[in-house]
UniProtKB/TrEMBL annotation:
<dbReference type="InterPro" id="IPR014777">
    <property type="entry name" value="4pyrrole_Mease_sub1"/>
</dbReference>
<dbReference type="Pfam" id="PF00590">
    <property type="entry name" value="TP_methylase"/>
</dbReference>
<dbReference type="InterPro" id="IPR014776">
    <property type="entry name" value="4pyrrole_Mease_sub2"/>
</dbReference>
<dbReference type="InterPro" id="IPR003043">
    <property type="entry name" value="Uropor_MeTrfase_CS"/>
</dbReference>
<keyword id="KW-0489">Methyltransferase</keyword>
<dbReference type="InterPro" id="IPR050161">
    <property type="entry name" value="Siro_Cobalamin_biosynth"/>
</dbReference>
<dbReference type="GO" id="GO:0004851">
    <property type="term" value="F:uroporphyrin-III C-methyltransferase activity"/>
</dbReference>
<dbReference type="InterPro" id="IPR006366">
    <property type="entry name" value="CobA/CysG_C"/>
</dbReference>
<dbReference type="InterPro" id="IPR000878">
    <property type="entry name" value="4pyrrol_Mease"/>
</dbReference>
<keyword id="KW-0949">S-adenosyl-L-methionine</keyword>
<comment type="similarity">
    <text>Belongs to the precorrin methyltransferase family.</text>
</comment>
<dbReference type="GO" id="GO:0032259">
    <property type="term" value="P:methylation"/>
</dbReference>
<keyword id="KW-0808">Transferase</keyword>
<dbReference type="InterPro" id="IPR035996">
    <property type="entry name" value="4pyrrol_Methylase_sf"/>
</dbReference>
<feature type="domain" description="Tetrapyrrole methylase">
    <location>
        <begin position="3"/>
        <end position="214"/>
    </location>
</feature>
<keyword id="KW-0627">Porphyrin biosynthesis</keyword>
<protein>
    <recommendedName>
        <fullName>uroporphyrinogen-III C-methyltransferase</fullName>
        <ecNumber>2.1.1.107</ecNumber>
    </recommendedName>
</protein>
Length: 258
């Protein structure tokens, strides 16, 4: 009897997938995958497996969610081993719960295979901890893009006043709105912010600034999606670690025996 696996492919680096997820890919008869899935992972599939691209560009879904649900149910009922492969974690801004519900309503056996989400992994790979004993005792992950465009449904006032670190997915197109909201609700304009493009991959690129200056930094360095936005004092930890690493790399030992 077949089974549908809702699988998190991790943040970008193909080595950051779980062992269980990799086994599911290797045993799948059908794989439906999203745009942010690293192509290297698809090479793990069986030669005869059907690979179906589902798209999922911001504001442009090449395949409608209803169609994806239909295909998962269709192949599940045929007794196939199906993998629905998503970037990050299927239940973190991945619409995995909607697909699980569609499968459950049709009596299809399914399992969720969690993945490492970019909201934590991308900052960590850039030396930014989302929590820190002195600088960040709480963190929140939010979307910067909502169904109707601007993330006006997000309670920015609560985030500004009660959360130390904010990790924002899909927020690049609304970066100006987001920074304005946080400043207007009490965050200092000098609050540190980092943006990490294609985090954990060989193409990773990061810029740092403040809520007041980050728009200019983005334009100067041409930062684009996919990118994670991290706001809070923990950004300074990343800058300090980068400085220390570069400083110690410049110190050459006098002798290898020392």
């Amino acid at each position: 009897m077949g089974k549908v696996y809702l699988v998190g492919a991790g943040p970008g680096d193909p080595d950051l997938i779980t062992v269980k997820a990799l086994k599911a890919i290797q045993q799948a008869d059908v794989i439906l995958y999203d745009r942010l899935v690293n192509p290297q992972l698809l090479k793990e599939a069986k030669e005869e497996a059907d690979l179906i691209y589902c798209g999922k560009l911001p504001k442009l879904h090449l395949m409608k969610q209803d169609t994806i649900n239909h295909l998962l149910i269709k192949y599940g009922k045929k007794g196939k081993n199906v993998v629905r492969l998503k970037g990050g974690d299927p239940f973190v801004f991945g619409r995995g719960a909607e697909e699980a519900e569609a499968l459950a309503k049709n009596g299809i056996h399914y399992e969720v295979v969690p993945g490492i989400t970019a909201g934590i992994a991308a900052p960590a790979h850039a030396d930014i901890p989302v929590t820190h004993r002195e600088l960040g005792r709480s963190f929140a992950v939010v979307t910067g893009h909502c169904k109707n465009g601007e993330p006006s449904e997000i309670k920015w006032e609560y985030l500004a006043k009660s959360v130390d670190t904010i990790a924002i997915y899909m927020g690049m197109s609304n970066l100006g709105y987001i920074t304005e909201q946080l400043i207007s609700h009490g965050l200092s304009a000098s609050t540190p912010i980092a943006i990490i493009q294609e985090g954990t991959t060989a193409n990773q690129k990061m810029i740092c600034g403040t809520l007041q200056t980050i728009i200019q930094q983005v334009e100067k360095h041409q930062i684009q999606n996919p990118a994670m936005i991290v706001i809070g004092e923990v950004v300074k930890v990343g800058e300090r670690l980068q400085y220390l690493k570069e400083s110690f790399q410049e110190i050459k030992p006098i002798s290898t025996a020392l």
